[in-house]
Structures are given as structure tokens and as C-alpha cells.
Amino acid sequence: MLLLPMVYFLVFKYIPMTYIQIAFKNYSIVKSPWEMPWAAHNGFEYFIQAFQNRDFIDALRNTILLNVLDLIIGFPAPIILAIILNEISHRALKRITQTVAYMPHFLSWIIIAGMALQLLAPSNGLINIVLQRLGMQPIPFLNEPVYWVATYVILGIWQSVGWNTIIYLAAITSINPELYESAAIDGASRLQRIWHVTLPGIRSTIIVLLILSLGRILGSDFDRPYALRNPLVKEVSDVLSIFIYNYGIRGLRFSLTTAVGLFQSVVSVSFLLFADYLAKKFGERGII
């Protein structure tokens, strides 16, 4: 049973790793990675070029900014939603709420971007039309950097919060119900039961998912920022994945973008290991 997945990982994950060498060599389409000549500065020529490239520095800054905001604002959201759903006693209402919350996960970012444009466009977006009819000024949700960043983060939370809630709901169901009964007998209110029973019961799950989230702090999706971006917010919307697309796919600078991708991976693994170390330092199991 393991043969097929092992072959998959070997062919599509491990064999392509030989092309990591491109980051240290002058790329040639007619040569294998082993035959390509080494780049200048002991092979670090393209790393130096990346850090001297203003577009790369801007993309790195934007990637960190957007991912940190996603982490700070978006990470607690599924925890809060899971606790709220767990406290709903009406089964039908609970199922309907869960279904509505899960649905955005199955929408592509192209569809979400189209919906956002119809709702948030400055002149003909539904929300701004309503604001104007109420005598208020339209809000440039998609046209000014600060508003665009807020819209980007909120749409990301809306799209993923329901799906991520599943993990926390599963963790909550594993908590012994007798703990809630004992707390209620001792006079604990609902909020006190959540604070002293529910949250400690899912703490290990929260720590593991937080470690994984920190490991993605320098990673960046392509479809989400690319679908929502426009020339007016280029200064905050161009992230590393878009930089790699522009310079690698469109500009054919494969060595440069491979160096950028390798830099992303190394930093992400470093964050992951450091977060795992801190978790174990404070008595948690970690993931490694």
C-alpha cells in the first residue's frame, strides 16, 4: 500500500530537488544541473543579485507583513468560531452555521476576487453604492494600500476560518465531558468553563498549528494576492510568489528565482524548528 505514495514522492518531490543546484549555477536549458557552470562569488551570485534587487526587497517586506497580519488576526479566528459552535445547543442551527462557514473554502480565489470586485469596487460596488445613498463617502477597499491590506486579510479569514475550525472542533470533542460537569458543579460560569476547561483541553492542538503557521511565515500563495492585486496597490500586493512569477516564468531568470525559492524554504524551516524548540522548552510536545 505504501509503494504508490513512495513512488509519487520520489518522482515528484525528491528527484526534482537536484534542480536546487540552479540557484548556485548559470542556468542553461541544454545542460543538466550537474553540467551547468558555477555562478560567480562561489556560487552565491544570484543570492547577491536578489538582495540587491529592489523588487525582491519590496516583495519580501510585503510577504512578511501580510503573513504576520494573517497570523495575528486570522489564527485566533477558527479557535473562537470552534468554541462558539461548540456552545450552540440547537443541532440544526449548529449544522447550518458549520455548512455556511465551510463553503468559502471550496471557492477559488478567482471567484472570490470577482465577488469582491462586485461588492467593493469604489464606483459601482454594491457596498459603496449603499454608502453613497446613505450620504457617506465611498471607501476605496481595493484602490488604496491600507484598505487593500485590510480587505486582503479579512477575505483570507472569511475563506479559511470554517475549514480550519474542523480541527479545533475535533479536539474539543475529545475533552472529557465530566470536566465540564465538575466545573459546573463548582459554580463555574460558561465563560469560566471555556477558559479553564476548553482552552486547556485544546492547547496542544493550538501549539502544533501555531508552529506550522510560523513555518509558513515567509511562504506566500500565488492565487490570492495575484487575483486581488491591481496597479494602484502594487507597493503592498507584490509578494515573493509574484516576484518569482515575474522574474522566473515571464523573465526566464530561473537561477535568480530558484535562489529566492531556496531562501524562502531555508528561512521557513528555520522558523519551524525555532517554534518547535520553544514549544518543547515550555513543556509542549511540538511536532518533531
Question: Would you mind describing this structure in some detail?
Answer:
This protein is mainly alpha-helical and 288 residues long. Helix content is 68%, strand content 0%. It has helices spanning 3-14, 45-51, 54-74, 76-87, 91-102, 109-120, 126-133, 145-173, 177-185, 190-201, 203-215, 223-228, 234-237, 240-250, 254-281. It is globular and about 75 Å long. The two termini are 25 Å apart. The mean pLDDT is 90.
Which key features would you list for this structure?
MetI-like fold
CATH class placement of one domain: Mainly Alpha
The portion of residues assigned to helices is: 55-70%
Strand tally, please? Answer: 0
- CATH homologous superfamily classification of one domain: MetI-like
Specify the number of helices: 15
**Judging by the overall fold, what is the CATH architecture of one domain?**
Orthogonal Bundle
Straight-line N-to-C gap: 25 Å
CATH topology of one domain: MetI-like fold
Structural class: mainly alpha
Q: What form results from the Cα inertia axes? A: globular
What are the low-pLDDT stretches, counting only 5+ consecutive residues below 50?
none
Largest sheet: none
Share of residues in strands: under 5%
Give the C-alpha Rg.
23 Å
Compute the average pLDDT. Answer: 90
